[in-house]
Amino acid sequence: AAKQYQNRGLRLSDLINEGNIGLVKAAKRFDETRGFKFISYAVWWIRQSIMQAISQKSRVIRLPLNKIGTISKIYKVHSALEQKYERPPSAEEIASALDISVDKVKTSMKNSGRHLSMDAPFKEGESSNLYNVIKSKEPNNPDKDVMRESLLTDIDEALKTLPDRESDVVRLYYGIGEQNPMSLVEIGEIFDITRERVRQIKEKGIRLLRNKSRNKVLRAYL
Questions:
Q1: Any idea what the CATH number is for the domain that residue 132 is in?
Q2: What is the DSSP code (8-state) at residue 32?
Q3: Count of CA atoms in the C-beta half-sphere (13 A) of 12
Q4: 38 and 148 in contact (C-beta within 8 Å)?
Q5: Between residues 192 and 6, the one the model is more confident about
Q6: Cα of 142 vs its chain's centroid, Å
Q7: Are residues 178 and 165 located together in one domain of the fold?
Q8: From residue 59, how far is each of 15, 69, 72, 108 by CA, in Å?
């Protein structure tokens, strides 16, 4: 899918690397208690990471200092609200916190090359966003099914390169496969280990997935 983002200032190899960063970010932020499927969550973060990199690294237009100041304030409020709500804030929430218009927030964030939240589109001109993908119940959507199956297969291949214990814990925690996501406590009961030990194993698995040789299996998707 990275081919659709080519000729925008970044090489294909750079797009792949950014996609891998998005996948790792999805793994870190995923919360199984919210009922989202990890595969849908990962797809959004991969595409989000690629689009943000294109905007930031290929943008050559210099912004006026006053606009940079506004963007800086928005970033700070964005981070604060994200920690408060444990999710990316909407443009409306940021605008309310700064007492500025929603249009100004959206325009500033667009100029900065950063999307705001899960209700932001995957790319300009699209209506699809993370909420659409996660909440979609359409039985006949071959394009989305193929995309999800493709990414699921590639993630599965990457997990096969991990030691068995790390692979199993990551699969169970993120609900990769047929099972639903499990909590650290539930996984600990399966392996007869503590919640903290499960967390350590999960984090080790994620670190190992960052290895470039393991990331290569995702190239077919990206």
A1: 1.10.10.10
A2: G
A3: 10
A4: no
A5: 192
A6: 22
A7: yes
A8: 15, 18, 17, 14
